[in-house]
Design goal:
Chain lengths: 254, 352
């Protein structure tokens, strides 16, 4: 019988700890499919963060290194500089990448560090029980904004792709979503490009994936996907914010 | 072997290259400046990667990454910067990764001063970060010893898969002395635990310090402490100078040991039986060496550029059998031999 659907090799054959309806599973699968298609699993090193995806080392078949909270881009820099021929990626959430790790993220991008960053933005700290994240939207209720995020008090969300697109070292900054099949296909293309950029030594590539947190949003998985469409996408517009292969280090050396 | 005149910091950097350090990450801070400058100058011709990080925190995490990838790696800083690195050092220890961390100490707390100090003794030997872990701590007292200990630090870090600190200070880092380097190439074993891609030849390697099950974390820490027991047996070193008949044993490491040695010689000229115990390893503390140095002593005098952070270790090593007195200057001040001699004379007069 012809196999029409299978588990990617780069994805471990284990149950995950993610909550029902969480879109981490989809994003993991996309990363694994891309590793399979590019044939890079054996050459890849993934850097897992602190947050919901802290257990990602159990889910990817490639070598995996754990970073302190927010430091994944620095850890990935260390791996990449030590082994320039490896394919190095980080997988980080919004609290990790856009709050405690902003400095590491911005400077890895500014350096044109030749790594791939998968940034999962679900506008909340999931692992610690649903606190306000740097991407929590105005009005959004969380454990630490029980009356909704008030910009006069808690300030405004950080839009990472927009910000990173201003840096010369950024090769790709693209925001995608996994709320429907068409968006999932688009997300996979972006993730693939972010890995191909690294293989082609084009510099820092980040794919921001709008994701859900049904548990901490207090929604059913279906309602959570609807929130992505009706609230998040209008505020965090999908699209390519930067796609300029300006940083081919080998060409530069010549 | 050729002898050259070098600054302590530059000699340390040269030793790191010769030890096979492949990746060096640092953030600018005084007085470790020359370590980074020397490596930056040499990176292109000597096959070493130097990257100036955006912060101390980033630098130590780049070390974590490079070490995970299986290469010898180092970061250097001075006291306030080491505080920032403490998070990363804890993760490096918790992930069982080798790394060399250099602290060219300056005054604290806070921004303190940029002058030499020894006020990070506690930080280095007791608590450089959260959790149950230790670093091996080497304390050189000359430029030559800085070189020798740097090379040893890389070897021990690899052997025991743990962070090793070279605890020097602004005085040792900035002063020049003749130094020689061995031409021996380092012997670096392949690290089968490293994360550099499994190439389809093995299961994936994982570098991790997370253990959510209490029994697993307890087991992991216990295993590490079994290694520490071996280290305590194998790595402890001290210089014992004129202690055989000494009534007063001075205890000092690094810069202050040089001062104390001068004071011991001056005391001897005055007929006072003084000696010097100089720990070269601060963790593990050379307990047996100290006990034998104190075999005939009546008093111990700790001489430090701090408020006396080593005193407790001295008392513990002796089970409080002898009085341990203290003389120190700090804030960037270095005690003079005359000041130390005055203390020796006071103790000597009192006991007559």
């Amino acid at each position: 019988m012809a196999v029409v659907f299978d588990k990617p090799h780069a994805l471990c054959d284990v149950p995950t700890h993610y909550c029902p309806g969480c879109t981490h599973g989809i994003i993991h699968r996309l990363v694994a499919e891309v590793m399979d298609e590019l044939g890079i699993e054996g050459n890849s090193v993934g850097v897992f963060p602190v947050g919901c995806s802290v257990l990602a080392y159990n889910y990817f078949e490639c070598d995996m290194v754990g970073a302190p909270h927010g430091r994944a881009p620095a850890v990935a820099t260390g791996v990449k500089r030590a082994r320039p021929d490896s394919v190095v990626f980080t997988y980080q959430g919004d609290g990790d990448l856009a709050a405690i790790g902003t400095c590491e993220t911005v400077h890895a991008a500014a350096r044109g560090e030749n790594i791939t960053v998968i940034f999962v933005n679900n506008t909340i700290y999931g692992m610690t029980g649903g606190q306000m994240a740097p991407t929590t939207m105005p009005g959004q209720v969380t454990q630490t904004t029980p009356y909704g995020r008030e910009p006069e008090i808690q300030g405004y969300p950080v839009k990472m792709c927009e910000m990173l697109s201003t840096l010369e070292g950024t090769a790709l900054a693209q925001r995608v979503s996994v709320d429907n099949p068409a968006h999932i296909r688009e997300a996979k293309k972006a993730i693939k490009k972010a890995f191909e950029n690294q293989i082609n030594k084009k510099g820092f590539s980040i794919v921001e994936v709008l994701s859900t947190c049904p548990t901490n949003w207090g929604m059913s998985p279906v309602d959570a996907l609807e929130r992505v469409r009706t609230e998040m996408i209008p505020y965090f517009p999908l699209g390519v914010y930067k796609d300029e292969a300006v940083w081919n280090k080998e060409e530069k050396a010549d | 072997m050729e002898r050259v005149l070098m600054k302590g910091n530059e000699a340390l950097a040269e030793a790191a290259i010769r030890a096979g350090c492949k990746c060096f990450f640092a953030y600018p801070i005084t007085p470790q400046t020359e370590v980074a400058a020397y490596l930056a100058k040499n990176m292109k011709k000597r096959d070493i990667t130097f990257l100036q990080a955006e912060s101390e925190i980033a630098a130590v995490n780049m070390v974590l990454g490079a070490s995970s990838a299986g290469v010898r790696t180092m970061t250097s800083s001075s006291s306030p910067g080491i505080s920032l690195k403490s998070e990363g050092v804890s993760y490096i220890a918790g992930s069982d990764l080798p790394a060399v961390i250099v602290n060219v100490q300056r005054g604290g707390p806070g921004l303190g001063s940029i002058q030499p100090s020894q006020s990070d003794y506690w930080q280095a030997t007791k608590a450089l970060g959260h959790g149950d872990f230790q670093l091996i701590v080497f304390a050189p007292a000359s430029v030559q010893e800085t070189v020798d200990m740097t090379i040893r630090a890389f070897e021990e870090a690899d052997r025991y898969r743990m962070p090793v600190m070279i605890l020097t200070d602004g005085f040792l880092g900035q002063m020049m002395e003749p130094v020689s380097f061995s031409d021996e190439a380092p012997v670096i074993e392949e690290k089968d635990w490293a994360c550099s891609g499994h190439k389809g030849e093995r299961k994936h390697n994982i570098i991790n310090s997370l253990f959510l099950q209490p029994d697993d974390l307890e087991h992991s820490v216990n295993e590490r402490y079994k290694r520490y027991d071996i280290i305590k047996e194998k790595i402890h070193d001290a210089e014992i100078y004129k202690c055989e008949d000494a009534d007063i044993v001075l205890a000092a490491y690094g810069t202050t040991a040089r001062v104390a040695k001068s004071a011991v010689n001056q005391a001897r000229e005055k007929g006072i039986k003084a000696g010097l115990f100089r720990p070269k390893t601060l963790w593990p503390f050379p307990v047996e060496e100290f006990r034998s140095a104190c075999a005939n002593a009546k008093t111990v005098l700790s001489v430090e550029m701090s408020q006396g952070q080593m005193v407790e270790d001295l008392r513990l090593a002796l089970d409080c059998r002898l009085p341990v007195e203290f003389y120190g200057r700090h804030g960037g001040n270095i005690p003079s031999p005359a000041e130390v001699l005055e203390q020796i004379e006071k103790i000597s007069e009192r006991s007559l």
